Amino acid sequence: MKNRITLMLVGALTLGSLAFADIQAPPGAKWNWSRKLSRSLANLAYGVTEYPTTWSKVERQDGVNAAATSMVVEGTSRTLVRVGYGLFELVTFPFPAYKGGYKPPYNKDERFDTWYGYEEFPPQLGFTSQARYSRTQSN
Fold this sequence. Notes:
Strand content: under 5%
Order of helices and strands: HHHH
Structural class: mainly alpha
Distance between the termini: 55 Å
Oligomer: single chain
Number of strands: 0
Radius of gyration: 24 Å
Largest sheet: none
Number of helices: 4
């Protein structure tokens, strides 16, 4: 009986200490040198996907004629920015270069304007489903 009480007390103390343990990752743990290298290679390989993405965004808002000219001007600008950041990050991937970490150096300001910010990775072409569930009809 005494062993059971001791065992239960030790178990309760162990579980109690685990409940209050800080097991969270630090804020910058998501970004490391390998993510920076993969981001740079993706920007170099798929930076040209800014052309069709620019076309589809402008075409939805302003029509085909505006999309044709914006694709050339804005698509080229965004592609060159992606390739430039890709080269910069490829050269500096082993070192924390931007603000002492491996975070992406380009601004992502979606709160104000979704057009001028850059996502961490280049845009994907085609249809991709981001839903992690399936819709079914129920009776």
